[in-house]
Design a protein that fits this description.
CATH class of the largest domain: Mainly Beta
Number of strands: 27
Largest sheet: 8 strands, antiparallel
Strand content: 35-45%
Oligomer: single chain
Distance between the termini: 21 Å
CATH topology of the largest domain: Thrombin, subunit H
Shape: elongated
Length: 388
């Protein structure tokens, strides 16, 4: 396992770092029914008092949430041939499945799972997903000793909703932090890469300013009802401390729980999950006005195709990437601009990736609205599966 894995860079000094801690460094499957019930807590944005005024979340609400949820959060301690490390996780079901990030357990020879009641057991990784950075650990414990956390609906989240992260930053177990949903539909590079060593995209990530630090990786991000809405994965940072640890900048990323709910049942049953595949590349950052002008496109939203994989689903559907040199180095004009997918507007590339990942499977057909040569047209596309 690497001490720190750089996820992607926006600029020369702006990187995202996994929030794990190290020293020395297809039909829909039925979801498990949570066996633990958590009384719904009032939220600051949704519940009104009898007098009609908005009720703010109170300290007692947060304390009650912590008491109910914390028993289902675990510390994960791993040993590799060259180092030891730690991360977080949570109980998924009564069968002993624990969810965490793949990068927390990557290369582990032994995995220890520590519960808040003092129980410590060894676990075994039974399945991993490098595309969304997920891992499923199995522990052998009686069902009565396991407290699964209920899973929420990340699609229902709104920017500004309050969220809570619970985990083990710097091996400080059972740490709780509070923040808001800063944005939705963010993208990171997947850990897995294609044949040409370029990374696939991981979409539908939640951005939050809830404090996430090394050791928080794999822990739950929760709404104020105590439901898991994401799995904390990475932070974006502009520097490190004198010990080499990344500095929290208030920008953290969590894998959406709707991705998790779609993927994990397959991981448990089959050991893997096949993601749908378009076979395109685009910019994860919106273009500037100068770039739109250079592309000679008279609009400023959509997913512009900078590359189309030969023989891939997009290529077979007739989509085109840019080939014409522009005044901006590396930016080629003449490519298709995806404006919508299945009638849903695509403002940025992340909108397209998130929709495909959370709603579609290999073999499904989607309808793309594209802009080409000054006019819009509809293009059907049958999704493939990401190459191994």
């Amino acid at each position: 396992m690497k001490r720190w894995l750089i996820v992607f860079a926006l600029a020369a000094f702006l990187t995202a770092t996994f929030a794990c801690s190290y020293s020395p460094s297809l039909a829909t499957l039925e979801q498990p029914t949570p066996t633990a019930t958590f009384p719904t807590l009032t939220t600051a944005t949704q519940v009104q008092s009898q007098a009609g005024s908005v009720q703010l979340v109170t300290e007692s609400d947060l304390a009650a949430l912590y008491e109910r949820v914390n028993p289902g959060v675990v510390t994960i301690i791993v040993a590799t041939p060259n180092a030891s490390g730690s991360g977080s996780g949570f109980v998924y079901d009564k069968e002993g499945h624990i969810l965490t990030n793949y990068h927390v357990v990557e290369g582990a020879e032994t995995i220890e799972v520590d519960f808040t009641d003092g129980n410590k057991v060894y676990g075994e990784v039974i399945a991993t997903d490098l595309d969304s950075d997920l891992a499923v650990i199995k522990v052998n414990l009686p069902p009565e000793e396991l407290i699964p956390l209920p899973l929420g609906d990340s699609d229902a989240l709104k920017v500004g909703d309050q969220v809570v992260a619970i985990g083990n930053p710097f091996r400080l177990s059972s740490t709780m932090t509070l923040g808001i949903v800063s944005a939705k539909g963010r993208m990171l590079d997947s850990i897995r890469t294609s044949a040409d060593n370029s990374p696939f995209s991981a979409g539908d990530l939640i951005q939050t300013d809830a404090s996430i630090n090394p050791g928080n990786s794999g822990g739950p991000l929760l709404n104020l009802a105590g439901e898991v809405v994401g799995i904390n994965r990475a932070i974006r940072t502009t520097g490190t401390t004198f010990t080499g640890d990344p500095v929290n900048s208030g920008i953290g990323f969590s894998v959406s729980i709707n991705i998790v709910k779609r993927v994990v049942p397959y991981l448990i049953r089959d050991g893997h999950y096949d993601y749908p595949y378009l076979g395109i590349t685009s910019s994860s950052i919106d273009f500037t006005l100068a770039e739109w002008k250079a592309l000679d496109i008279n609009q400023t939203y959509g997913a512009y195709l900078t590359g189309v994989v030969p023989g891939g689903p997009a290529d077979q559907a007739g989509l085109r990437a840019g080939t014409i040199t522009t005044s901006i180095p590396g930016l080629l004009a003449g490519g298709d601009l995806i404006q919508a997918v299945d009638g849903k507007t695509v403002y940025v590339y992340g909108d397209l990736v998130s929709y495909i990942m959370t709603n579609k499977s290999p073999g499904d057909t989607i309808n793309l609205t594209i802009f080409r040569n000054g006019q819009s047209m509809e293009v059907p596309l049958t999704l493939g599966k990401r190459p191994q």
